[in-house]
Specification:
Elements: H1 5-15, H2 19-26, H3 30-37, H4 44-54
Helix pairs in contact: 2-3, 2-4
Length: 63
């Protein structure tokens, strides 16, 4: 699965957070978040952590 960078960025803007804050809230490294934001595929577990930190359902942020 791949994250939709635009949707994630818009949600980050809505929450007024940056990648470092999102990574911390999701319990993942900033480098991992950066990699999946730049098109690297991610596992369901990682998708779940990011979507939970953003307060949305996983299907809302995948391509």
């Amino acid at each position: 699965m791949r994250l939709n960078r635009t949707k994630v960025s818009l949600l980050m803007a809505k929450l007024v957070i940056n990648q470092a804050t999102l990574a911390m809230e999701a319990g993942i490294s900033r480098q991992t978040l950066s990699a999946v934001m730049n098109g690297r595929s991610c596992r369901p577990e990682l998708l779940g952590k990011v979507s939970k930190a953003l307060g949305v359902e996983p299907e809302e942020i995948i391509e």
